[in-house]
Amino acid sequence: MRGRARFAFAALAFGYAFLYLPIALVIVYSFNESRLVTVWAGFSFKWWQALFANEAMLQAAWLSLRIAFVSATLAAAIGLAAGYALVRARRFPGRALFGSLVVAPMVMPEVVMGISMLLLFVGSERLLGGPDRGFLTIAVAHTTFSIAFVAIVVQARLSDFDRSLEEAAMDLGATPWVTFRTITLPLIAPAVGSGWLLAFTLSLDDLILTQFVAGAQSQTLPMRVYSSVRLGVDPQINVLATIVVAVAASALVLSGWLTRQRQ
Amino acid sequence: MRAVIGIPFLWLGVFFALPFLLVLVIALGTNNPDAVPPVDLGFSFRNFALLFSDDLYLAAWLSSIRIAATSTLVALLLGYPMAYAIARAAPNRRPLLLMLVVLPFWTSFLIRIYAWMGLLASNGTIDQFLRWTGIAENPGTILGTEWAVHLGIVYAYLPFMVLPLYATLEKLDMSLLEAASDLGARPWQAFLTVTLPLSFPGIVAGCLLVFIPSVGEFVIPDLLGGTDTLMIGKVLWDEFFTNADWPLASAVAVCLIVLLVAPIAIFQRQQAKSLERQ
């Protein structure tokens, strides 16, 4: 038994070291004095100041946040409908097609989705005269691939759902819509919320799809990061990484704490 | 209910299914650099013929599948012990251990790959460490090789391997293992004959979750690989953005769907069916 415990400890120690050492180094070097991200030359907030004075980067971040908010909200609404339909509507024409359409974006390589959505927007530009490529087209593209993730979370929550509460409401004379709004929705709200958060994160992080459907004018944060990183390592990106990790970690800790409070 | 089905159906039909028809149409056209967009519509299989006759594309296919398969195997070898250890940890510790696996996934993908650029660069952290410890006097650069691409894929997709493995290992009935050891099986025999076969669904799910996105991967070979690292996602990207050959890029996309996504979808459907039958 002791041998097994030692093996488990070693597996976890190695795994977590592998996952976290690269991130830890990125964070350490965001406080480096030197421009080189491999040589330590003393502590400094120089690159933090540089990032917060970097107008282009801040604008890109603001654009990304707005797109993520819009697309996560759209995806949460549509994904909620899709997940609900998959669990509750047992039979309707095209159900098999519907089921595969909902999950297909999860297995589709992003480059394929990128080129296909760009062709759609180019086609609509030629035939309908719009929309211009930019905020709107990026938001639509992000919504389309996020729907699947929301739908799956909602579907999982609905499949182990106690229907007797809904039946009680219906017996007491509530219409289906009132039942949904007062009973079902509050009960599955946590699932919709985590689906929204997932969609928000995916949108904020997406590079490939965005690169295809963004016009010449719009630059999201991942696009800026990518074009800067291609030229080599850049301490400002280390600062950005530190902020992202800090936000993600505190969000996870907060959500863990909230679920424990509820229990 | 009609709207509940209709709205997602319509959205996915217009923005997901319809675009694939367009890809097929464009793939049958020809490249015309002077037109805007640079395509002449038509009905020729020239692009597909090129994809199957030119060695470059064939090599890109094969090396994408090879790189994705070996990375998936490494991720399995690394992820299985982790998932096993988490599933056997004290129940009150499991949420924290799982959260630590998931946390990197919630940070930026691009930034996690960037982290490896500084580590692997010549004169980077690993390079310096090897020199400082005297393990290697003059280590070659890892950045820009296929080794770096493998590392990047394993690193980026490890959480996708651990989570489904954990889900099956956690549900495993411990009394089966006790029965095996009562009947005289050594721990490793019990593992090979009981735990491993029972966790097979998790192994399949984890491997698919790592393999599928890695085959079409673009960012990792672009940032960590070298000019000689051939992967099909990067080929599509270069045909589209660098050579502005939309029809050829579309043909690559069609092949990716037909040769990769469709077989996996069919395989998964059959797996689900055979599970239902059991």
Topology:
The complex is a heterodimer of chains A (263) and B (278).
Chain A lengths: L1 H28 L16 H7 L2 H34 L6 H13 L2 H19 L6 H25 L4 H8 L4 H30 L2 H6 L7 H9 L5 H28 L1
Chain B lengths: L1 H26 L2 E2 L7 E2 L5 H8 L1 H34 L5 H13 L2 H12 L4 H9 L12 H26 L2 H9 L4 H12 L1 H16 L3 H5 L8 H11 L3 H32 L1
Antiparallel strand pairs in B: 1-2
From the structure above, extract its key features.
heterodimer; A: mainly alpha; MetI-like fold; 11 helices; 79% helix; B: 278 residues; mainly alpha; two-stranded antiparallel ribbon; 13 helices; 2 strands; 1% strand; globular
Brief account:
The complex is a heterodimer of chains A (263) and B (278). With 263 residues, chain A is mostly helical.
Q: What's the arrangement of strands in the largest beta sheet of chain B?
A: 1-2
CATH superfamily of chain B: MetI-like
Instruction: Give the oligomeric state of the chains in this entry, treating copies of one chain as homo and distinct chains as hetero.
Output: heterodimer
Number of strands of chain A: 0
Helix content of chain A: over 70%
Which second-level CATH architecture of chain A applies?
A: Orthogonal Bundle
